[in-house]
Amino acid sequence: MINGVNLTFQFLDSFAFIVLAAIGLAVIFGMMGVINLAHGEFIMIGAYGTTLAANAGLPLVAAILVGVLVTAGIGLLLERTIVKRLYDRPLDSMVATWALGLAITQAVRIVFGNSLSGIGMPFGAIQYGEFSYSTYRVLLSAIALAVLLGAYVVFTRTEFGVRARATIQDADTARAMGVDTDRMYSATFAVGSGLAGLTGALYAPAMSVVPGMGSSFLVEAFVAVVTGGGSVLIGTTLAGGVLGAVSALFTNLYGTFIGQVALLLVAILLLRFLPAGLSGVVEDFRERRERDSS
Q1: CB 240 within 8 A of CB 18
Q2: Which of 12, 82, 150, 170 is paired with 134 by a 20 to 30 Å CA distance?
Q3: d(CA 131, CA 113)
Q4: What GO CC terms are in its UniProt record (predicted)?
Q5: Looking at residue 3, what is its pLDDT?
């Protein structure tokens, strides 16, 4: 039997998890074409940076900022030294970032051990009847929407966003118009890495912070980016809504494992019948309206 309130909370939780897991990957893969298999490790770095900063006495908000900045800095360093040589080489980028992910995980395990002391979940729980749900995890859905809105503003309403999109769409023309394309690639990769770090930072109070924690985000991230289609922000939002609803419904009815299976099956069906992704449906609808109006 479906509990409506519980289903709503689970949908908000699933939506936040999928969107936050995918947004950094969507920027790096969707905009730059780099298949970053170290995405989960970037999320882990954000969680570690936040947890270590919080355990050192910083407030949670400041600790989250530390996690984001540390991850963005490491992402920038890796882009400048390794990833920049792999643009337009998707298979090579997959192998290289996979190896980077393994190296990062082992380095974290060697330096910090197999786990860190947790920082605790803030804000308590929402009570409804005999059930309760974490207030913090529900608030993450609002944060996910804010992150999407912020990414939209940055990439569509700022000079940096215009230059970044111009560089990624046609680097030669952008360079001829005076854009420092190397800097734009680096900045875009750093932004995507920072968004991955933000995901880890936000989930640090809600999960066990261990070296392999990033792998729990990786499947949802890639599924959301692929099913979302070519439009990074619209696709990520739609994928989060559709996949989050499927995951919440089947998890509520049959448990977490069946919820994961249902999510993957729906993703397969979407890829089969909507090869351009969910954002492709929006683009087709928009083009049809423009033709009709003209």
Answers
A1: yes
A2: 150
A3: 36
A4: plasma membrane
A5: 66
- Residue 133 β-bridge partners: 126
Structure tokens given for 148: 């999407």
In the structure, what pLDDT confidence band is assigned to residue 147 with cuts at 50, 70 and 90?
very high
Residue 134, strand partner residues: 125
Q: Is the pLDDT confidence value at 168 over 60?
A: yes
Q: How many CA atoms lie within 13 A of 287 on its CB side?
A: 6
The pTM of the full predicted model, rounded to 2 decimals, is: 0.92
Going by CATH, does the domain composed of 4-285 fall within 1.10.10? no
Among candidate residues 39, 10, 54, 13, the one with its CA nearest the CA of residue 217: 39
Joined together, the tokens standing for residue 95 give: 């192998």
Q: What is the DSSP secondary structure assignment for residue 38, as one 8-state letter?
A: T
- In the prediction, which pLDDT does 293 show? 76
Instruction: State pLDDT tens for residues 57-106.
Output: 999 999 999 999 999 999 999 999 999 888 878 888 899 999 999 999 99
Produce one character per residue of 214-225: b if its CB has 16 or more CB atoms within 10 Å, e if not: bebbbebbbbbb
State the residue for tokens 């608030």.
139
> What is the distance between the terminal CA atoms of the chain, rounded to a whole angstrom?
50
CB atoms within 10 A of CB 211: 22
CA distances to 20, 36, 150, 179, 234 from 159, rounded to whole Å, are 25, 26, 14, 11, 20
Per-residue pLDDT of 114-131, as tens digits, reads 888 888 888 888 887 777
Query: Cβ(235)–Cβ(30) under 8 Å?
Result: yes
pLDDT for the residue 97? 94
Residue 100 near residue 82 (C-beta atoms within 8 A): yes
Measure the CA–CA gap between 43 and 211, rounded to whole angstroms.
10
Is the pLDDT at 1 greater than 60, yes or no?
A: no
